[in-house]
TrEMBL record:
It comes from Xanthomarina spongicola. InterPro entries: ADC_synthase, Chorismate_C. Pfam families: Chorismate_bind (PF00425). This is Isochorismate synthase. Residues 100-311, 317-364 form the Chorismate-utilising enzyme C-terminal domain.
């Protein structure tokens, strides 16, 4: 399908107020969309469903599914963008949101010093003007600006319109093999990835790695943990560890693995339940789908393999694998009638500096603001 035809199809879906998701996986130019043919709200029951899942931060709330069955799947090799200018944001934060966030972080540090938990991820939501902007144009800008991210535009008339470009994989499963990552620690990119990190960032990232390894220990085999590396995500750098292995049960049990992982200390805290209760009680707004997860659930992928043995004709095997590609919903925004809500947060440990944490959220918000100008 041509780029124009693809963009026109998702635009029509939005005009007709029908659910859809358009997305591109990290480092791929292929852009896919799933267009639901009705406006029902389908919810995920047990993660054996096939479709695109959109799950909130709070696991007591429903995850929404755009099922493959009731949808049209389209794709195009490369979306061509006309409008490529990205200018710096001119939108200013108010003093009250700064004070509120700094107070929140101070409260988090105090709770850590009182040993209620070791890490908590605290966030805020920033409202910016979104007048006369076409969300599909913003999607195109996201694709162009953040090619190494999972870029998406998700819409359901009953739930809302979300756009994002996340650097974080929650879980990739292919057959029984899986990949995940521990991503945390932030600093601004200043022309090089050869940077040094403070202990605060090293610690907060290590919490995530340890949590993932501990929580996957019982359901996996051959767990491999990479060295920590510095990765670039837009104008930011993070610390990342890759974790790979094989699940020791079939993917029908994906539900348990997701329950063990989500929300990780990259977006919630440690211990998970205590940090989550602190977030729900103190953040003073609803994260909704921010720091939830999203992506392809149980897609059937055909792989054709020639065994290369001589004298054997038609020696081609086709196998079908169950594939899921799930990402953490970060660097995202929700589009309302005249405004966009940009969601940003950061990991707090005993060594956090509240003003630096505020500045980190500004840098993270800029990633979305850049595509709104
Ligand atoms: C919570 C966010 O990001 C997470 C927190 C990070 C941190 O505290 O340094 C870094 C990457 C993500 O794991 C966000 O982008 O809103």
């Amino acid at each position: 399908m041509t780029s124009d035809h693809f963009l026109d199809s998702i635009q029509q879906q939005l005009v007709k107020k029908l659910p859809f998701v358009a997305y591109s996986k990290p480092k791929e130019t292929l852009v896919k969309a799933i267009l639901q043919s009705n406006s029902e709200v389908y919810v995920v029951e047990d993660y054996s469903e096939k479709g695109f899942v959109f799950a909130p931060f709070d696991t007591s709330k429903d995850a929404v599914l755009i099922p493959i069955k009731n949808s049209l799947s389209i794709e195009c090799k490369h979306v061509i963008t006309n409008n490529s200018e990205n200018s710096q944001s001119i939108i200013q934060n108010t003093d009250s949101s700064k004070i509120h966030h700094i107070n929140l972080v101070e409260k988090g540090i105090e709770a850590i010093r009182k040993e209620q938990f070791q890490k908590v991820v605290l966030s805020r939501c920033e409202e910016v003007e979104f007048l006369g902007v076409n969300p599909i144009d913003v999607f195109q800008k996201l694709l162009q600006s953040y090619p190494t991210a999972f870029v998406y535009c998700w819409y359901h008339p009953e739930i809302g319109l979300w756009l994002g470009a996340t650097p974080e994989t929650l879980l990739e499963v292919e057959g029984s093999r899986f990949k995940t990552m521990a991503l945390a620690g932030t600093q601004k990119y200043q022309g090089t990835v050869e940077v040094s990190w403070e202990n605060k960032e090293k610690d907060e990232q290590q919490f995530v790695t340890d949590f993932i390894v501990n929580n996957l220990k019982n359901s996996t085999i051959n767990l491999k943990v990479s060295d920590v590396e510095t990765v670039k995500a837009g104008s930011l750098l993070h610390l990342k560890t890759n974790i790979t292995g094989a699940l020791n049960f079939e993917s029908s049990k994906l539900k348990q693995v997701l329950k063990a992982l989500h929300p990780t200390p990259a977006v919630c805290g440690l211990p998970k339940e205590k940090a989550k209760q602190f977030i729900l009680k103190n953040e003073n707004y609803n994260r909704e789908f921010y720091t939830g997860f999203l992506g392809e659930l149980n897609f059937q992928e055909k792989t054709t393999r020639n065994t290369n043995r001589r004298n054997v004709e038609n020696n081609v095997y086709t196998s079908v694998k169950n594939v899921s590609n799930l990402f953490v919903n970060l660097r995202c925004m929700q589009i309302l009638k005249q405004n966009a809500l940009i969601y940003v947060g950061g990991g707090i440990t005993k060594d956090s500096n509240p003003v630096a944490e505020w500045q980190e959220t500004i840098a993270k918000a800029d990633i979305m603001k850049k595509v709104l100008q």
